Amino acid sequence: MLNEAAVGILAGGGPLPAQLAKKLTEQGRRVFIVGFDGFAESALLKNYPHKLIRLAAAGEILRSLKEHDCEDLVLIGPVKRPSWRDLRPDAEGARILARLGRAVFKGDDGLLSAVIKILEEENFHVRGAHEFMDNAVGQEGAQGKVIPSLQAWSDIRRAAHILTIMAPLDVGQGCVVQNGVTLAVEALEGTDLMLERCQQLGQESSGGILLKMPKAGQDLRADMPTLGPVTIEKAASAGLEGIAFIAGHTLLTHNDACKEVADREGLFLYGLSREVVQQWQEEKEIY
Questions:
Q1: Which of 173, 248, 190, 236 is nearest to 209 (CA)?
Q2: Of 17, 211, 228, 230, whose CB is crowded by the most CB atoms within 10 A?
Q3: Has this prediction a pTM greater than 0.70?
Q4: Is 43:70 a contact under the CB 8 Å cutoff?
Q5: In sequence order, which residues have a C-beta less than 8 Å from that of residue 97 and are 6 or more positions away?
Q6: pLDDT in tens, 118-135
């Protein structure tokens, strides 16, 4: 029997919102999806109750969620921060922007934390997608047939050092290192475009790794690092040896497909334990 309260999904782009809706439906939960217009992929949402709404139309978003008896909320899928000119907030949106105050001008972590606080003040319970999608959370160890080389391990440690140092600046979740040389750190462009940039930077046949790692203090309910088959293919195109991520703190879209692509391309896909990374961070020399 379906539970009385529904889970509201605030959906950005990509396949994860629909995957979450499918998982929740299988668990006997009612769902209602607010797809952010211009970001959510409506074709993927068509099998579930949903409504496409402008990002800044906060009044319509909140009314829709309450009309559909949503209590738990999940924020999932990438959303590019719009310019002020494109926002066009409704009255409630303008009020919420005023409540956000200086958080609007902060990095993604500060803004998302402020948004979550406001949603909770509106009597919603913000949950992480990983609470409902255990099968999509990356596990420890090798996810396919390939394991990291000794050089790859050294590069992974260096990437962890770089992301640890940059965490207070709220810059990205990804770093590419090749033979000790930092090729790129993820910024606003996202992981896939960063990897495309690396195709022009790396030394031919010299390996290299991508590390995806959440920032210190990051609220994983709103912005958990994500990997999918396309990212693995782009890592292969960039000539990398493989991808490492933090187990339990990374979502793998199409989990089986990720492993299949990694094996086909000869890349490792490896889940690091949080304890190992913390140990590296506590050492005076992390790499």
A1: 236
A2: 17
A3: yes
A4: no
A5: 56, 87, 89, 104
A6: 888 889 999 988 888 877
